[in-house]
């Protein structure tokens, strides 16, 4: 196979798993067709494709919001034109592992809001659960339809230097990014229309249809056309583009809190012809802001009385309220034990080794090795508030230690996992950049379905390990081969 200058100049990062090149510096088989195709394109052609992708993202309003940036609110989501490719065998392993993990986590949520056997049997300490701000006593003994709590999840996966997949985070509350997965594929179809069928790339476009089918099945009223709405915090939310996209693709109403009202423990949508009863709410509003009568009384984003309607079983809410306790990074450390406890199975996907700083011995060890650790808040997200020990100054480490000592339970530490690298097209050259993977799983009455792909996020800055869009990351299309 003839390689072009793009690939002759590409140099994998030492000690890092490269998605395109094997240890022997040979191209992995599943990347060959893509390399042959790109090798036949001039730099001018690829630059035009990159420019077209940017124009398409801009014209379709594919943006996200950065809250701590002085550059204004909305930014275009950077997109890399070279796809990330996953073999059928790798995907089968990932899919099996995610299904196992979600099954156990769903059992855990039902258990801690009902019988709490896992606490009574000493598998998860009671103080870890009760000190979690997302453990909501309002959900205790509340039955949810089909006992499903985690209708939608985005499990963050990374690969270490030997190619092993690890679960970095379980996003079980209001996971975002699926619209970028769908839009990335649509744009790739425009850029490389012949390449997708040649490579046998599996489709991701069924996601909205599967989600809609699952939402329909949750309706408490057995009627032909239940009313489904997507509840958004509004235009200033970082994922508002996603809310509008999913509502449009599913053909459901996009609403805000002010569009809904509760009467007689039922939720209604205000329409031009009067009130219309709502059966299922796909909410993208966090628990704290969902019902000002129960949670944050200052909230203008939720609906007063919605919790009462939920408790009475008159409306289904997706995802279930109170899921955040299973998202807590201190609880994350116990997921392997949950899998053994509830399913009597060994975990397929590994956790990243994690130290809980609420444990004095572990805190002592972490403090001695801060320069080799990534420290995170147990309820942080979006890459905010992390300390990357290998890149931090002595002063930053000392300041962070003071923060930890105020509330040790609110921090965990993980060794710096290298993250695999994939080729990215950067100013006419191919460069390795670090990536992760967020596949999206949909849990319905018929089981768990995962569309073959997901959102591959890219740390676009050279040497960076932070892939979050809020921290300067981008994304690329994810191809799962048939």
TrEMBL record:
<dbReference type="InterPro" id="IPR016450">
    <property type="entry name" value="UCP005522"/>
</dbReference>
<protein>
    <submittedName>
        <fullName>Putative circularly permuted ATP-grasp superfamily protein</fullName>
    </submittedName>
</protein>
<dbReference type="InterPro" id="IPR051680">
    <property type="entry name" value="ATP-dep_Glu-Cys_Ligase-2"/>
</dbReference>
<feature type="domain" description="Circularly permuted ATP-grasp type 2">
    <location>
        <begin position="83"/>
        <end position="459"/>
    </location>
</feature>
<dbReference type="InterPro" id="IPR025841">
    <property type="entry name" value="CP_ATPgrasp_2"/>
</dbReference>
<dbReference type="Pfam" id="PF14403">
    <property type="entry name" value="CP_ATPgrasp_2"/>
</dbReference>
